[in-house]
Amino acid sequence: MAPFKFPSTDAFDKLDDKSIPANAMEQLQNELACVVLDELYPHLDLVARKSGSHIDPLHVHAAKGRSIVVFEHARLHLVWHLNKVFLKPIPACLLRESFWSANMEAGGQMQRQAVGFMRTYAFLIQHQSDFAIAQREGLLPPAGRLTFAGFEAFIKAFRHAPDDEVSLRWHFGQLRLNWLDWAVRIFRPHIPKQYGGMLRQFYYEEQFHQTRQFLYEFGAQLLAVFAAVSLILSAIQVALAAKPDNPWTGFAPTSAWFSVVVIIFLVATVVLVGTVSCVVLMVQIGYGLRSRGRRVL
Q: Strand, helix or coil at 69?
């Protein structure tokens, strides 16, 4: 297979600011490395679809109610959580051919990371509306003379780059954060200290930086459990209080049976919800196992 060839269409010359920092290569080596995801790669297809093209265009993210959160490290690029998606902007240096030829070894790890990262933008920006969103959100370097047609002519070469030309992380597209959290807890990859605090072994990327955020995330579930337990205890109390010597002899057995029915209903509901959750999980794991080793582009 022929090695990746940088696009002949020039996009760098249309930038408003053509200066490149002296430490640009050093920054890229740090920011494009996806250490944890590369280590999770053998298991990643259990929690995500193995397809480098499984990437929603920017206008689709907007339609799904996801706001764009700019994050300069690629470890969160294309990771989404609830109503937000994390995206790393394109560094200006990756639009310049001379930078690639001077710093990227053909087929080397750095080039594979860069090609994989740039390939994601070939799927993120597919329409004029996507291009407008990218400019508005600061995902592209300021370029008053760069049009959507010009950007498409440049980026389309990356769209057709095969998986053999990209690093392991980019064999997958967008990833769901809570599934990555479970992958971290189960498969226990090594997570560098700079990627998180004391809870980094339990979260791919910790989202609870305040107690209020934690309570907001889990408060509803805790209240539901508390309400269910309270109802069970109340039903048991009614059943025990319904004695035969009660003046309302007809009401006592009715209360006792009603309490038993409430308990059975609550237990059945918990079992049903747990069973459905397990079935959904097994279906997703089964899909991951069936698609393991299958390449989708």
A: strand
User: Do 33 and 177 fall within a single domain?
Assistant: yes
Q: Where are the beta strands (DSSP E) in 224-273?
A: none
Count of structural domains within the chain: 2
Q: What is the rounded CA–CA span in Å between residue 297 and residue 288?
A: 16
pLDDT digits (tens, 9 = 90+) for 118-171: 999 999 999 999 999 999 999 999 998 999 999 999 999 999 999 999 999 999
68 and 180, same domain (yes or no)? yes
| SS3 annotation, 93-150 | HHHCHHHHHHHCCCCCHHHHHHHHHHHHHHHHCCCHHHHHHHHHCCCCCCCCCCCHHH
pLDDT tens digits, residue range 57-109? 999 999 999 999 999 999 999 999 989 999 999 999 999 999 999 999 888 99
Give yes or no: residues 180 and 226 share one domain: no
Cα gap 151→157, rounded to integer Å: 11
- Rounded to whole angstroms, how far apart are CA atoms 199 and 181? 11
* pTM, to two decimals: 0.77
Counted residue by residue, the chain has a size of 297
Residue 242 lies in a domain: yes
- Alpha carbon of 78 to those of 114, 132, 268: distances in Å? 15, 18, 39
User: For 79, how many CA atoms within 13 A lie in the half-sphere containing its CB?
Assistant: 22
CB contact at 8 A, 88 and 31: yes
Kindly report the backbone phi and psi dihedral angles of residue 206, in degrees, each rounded to the nearest multiple of 5, phi listed first: -65, 130
